[in-house]
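pinned: reference chain
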Amino acid sequence: MNRKPLFITSIFIIGLQGCAGTTQSQGFVSVRPDQLFAGSYINVRAPNTDGWKLLQSSDSGMAFAKGGQAANESFGAQVLKFNLAPTKSPQEFEALIKESAERDADPSRFNVQQMSFKYSNERSYPCVRYHSVVQDKAPHGLKGPLLLESDGLYCRHPVRQKTGFAIIYSHRGEGLYGNLRGEAESFIQGVQVPGK
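pinned: its structure tokens
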């Protein structure tokens, strides 16, 4: 498994969302709200609302998307697996996640307005909470610029310690989405390591 750029992989999936309204014709599959996708590495539940399509499912992660009410609005929910260097403390782990995400943000396409990282003790293994708002100056297939807001949780896998996973829920549109935090939290809590 190769190292995945954390931020850019997220943006790549968001780029696919421009097609969310026509995903059925492209072979993407509709999923039920809260549908379980069980695995040995991680269990993933689809977002708990209607209209989501499964865009990608592989050893490196899963991605869901749906269109919004407005023409330029879309939502994404994804789980990404990546290689992760060792760290010796919560501060080092937070710094590693922050450095990776900041390095992967392409300033020619994205104007970062907010980006925050905070180590979290909410699970029995190391995690970092993530929030960002960026201006996407060139959204694929859509009229821009648009705002892309993301809430996520980056964690070190408690068994396969040389790997980590990111759980990211995002909205892209002309303005911010008031329900992002609640919907993101529901998706984040639906992604769990089996037995942990």
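why pinned: The CA atoms of residues 151 and 185 lie 8 Å apart. The longest helix spans residues 90-104.
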